[in-house]
């Protein structure tokens, strides 16, 4: 099948297939005499594997390791589990960071009247030279002001 058909069958865009080939994530495919790429069912299966790993947020480097382990029938499952658990830890840290960002923004929005006056603690905080506050710092900075 050609690259368009492989893209449709795998859910990976033609552009990404070319990119994955260029960085060695997937092997370069066979080409016809006229230079067109030809993909096998096995290639499509590998592309689906890569797409699922990307859907779970694995990095390209992690996916390369996972593809290698997937293709190695002598692999130890502990190696796969270690990659997955490392990724879980990263995702959990990102979730905490996103929750902290949302909480800080909510706190700042709670201290903004959102009226027609120009004073806005949200913009003041963004313009500040200080690191973004955690709640204790934000309370200290804006608590005395009340809702501004």
Automatic annotation (TrEMBL):
<dbReference type="GO" id="GO:0003700">
    <property type="term" value="F:DNA-binding transcription factor activity"/>
</dbReference>
<dbReference type="InterPro" id="IPR000551">
    <property type="entry name" value="MerR-type_HTH_dom"/>
</dbReference>
<dbReference type="Pfam" id="PF09278">
    <property type="entry name" value="MerR-DNA-bind"/>
</dbReference>
<keyword id="KW-0805">Transcription regulation</keyword>
<keyword id="KW-0238">DNA-binding</keyword>
<dbReference type="InterPro" id="IPR011789">
    <property type="entry name" value="CueR"/>
</dbReference>
<keyword id="KW-0963">Cytoplasm</keyword>
<dbReference type="InterPro" id="IPR009061">
    <property type="entry name" value="DNA-bd_dom_put_sf"/>
</dbReference>
<feature type="domain" description="HTH merR-type">
    <location>
        <begin position="1"/>
        <end position="69"/>
    </location>
</feature>
<dbReference type="GO" id="GO:0003677">
    <property type="term" value="F:DNA binding"/>
</dbReference>
<dbReference type="GO" id="GO:0005507">
    <property type="term" value="F:copper ion binding"/>
</dbReference>
<dbReference type="InterPro" id="IPR015358">
    <property type="entry name" value="Tscrpt_reg_MerR_DNA-bd"/>
</dbReference>
<keyword id="KW-0804">Transcription</keyword>
<dbReference type="Pfam" id="PF00376">
    <property type="entry name" value="MerR"/>
</dbReference>
<dbReference type="InterPro" id="IPR047057">
    <property type="entry name" value="MerR_fam"/>
</dbReference>
<protein>
    <submittedName>
        <fullName>Cu(I)-responsive transcriptional regulator</fullName>
    </submittedName>
</protein>
<dbReference type="GO" id="GO:0045893">
    <property type="term" value="P:positive regulation of DNA-templated transcription"/>
</dbReference>
<dbReference type="GO" id="GO:0005737">
    <property type="term" value="C:cytoplasm"/>
</dbReference>
């Amino acid at each position: 099948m050609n690259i368009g058909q492989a893209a449709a069958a795998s859910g990976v865009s033609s552009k990404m297939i070319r990119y994955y080939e260029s960085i060695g994530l997937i092997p370069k495919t066979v080409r016809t005499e006229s230079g067109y790429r030809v993909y096998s069912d096995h290639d499509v299966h590998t592309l689906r594997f890569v797409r699922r790993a990307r859907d779970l947020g694995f990095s390209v480097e992690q996916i390369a390791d996972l593809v290698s382990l997937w293709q190695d029938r002598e692999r130890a499952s502990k190696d796969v589990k270690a990659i997955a658990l490392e990724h879980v830890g990263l995702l959990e840290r990102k979730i905490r960071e996103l929750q902290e960002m949302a909480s800080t923004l909510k706190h700042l929005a709670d201290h903004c009247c959102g009226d027609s006056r120009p004073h806005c603690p949200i913009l003041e905080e963004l313009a500040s030279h200080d690191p973004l506050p955690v709640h204790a710092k934000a309370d200290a900075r804006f608590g005395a002001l009340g809702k501004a």
